[in-house]
Amino acid sequence: MSVRNATPYLLFNGHAREAITLYEAALGAQIESISRFGDVDQSCPEARRDLVMHAALRVDGALLMLSDGPFDQPLPPTGIVSIALDLDDVAQAHRIFDALAEGGQTLQPLFPAPWGALFGALNDRFGVNWMFNVATA
Q1: pTM over 0.85
Q2: How many folded domains does the chain comprise?
């Protein structure tokens, strides 16, 4: 089992669609997937329903992921970029999560996410933002 990928994850606080348009024009980015907050959570406030919960853009061989959230937390102290780890082993994910969280701040403990994976987020002791997506099937 291994870390399958480490991908830049960009947070836009309400401007993700504008960023997507720019990246399509400037970089030739192709939208691989996009989901809105209202697609996943029917109880979200009306003002957030059409905002981007998650989008994946392909720029040649590179992947960029982005979102308009999180809304319940201030933007990370190091800016709007996180490293998103895609893992395939739950035990390894917990080990890495716990190691990176020591001396840092857990923003979201690993939990079963609506899309069928485990998800969690933290800032490590150096201020680097990490997001975890762990395949469970």
Answers
A1: no
A2: 1
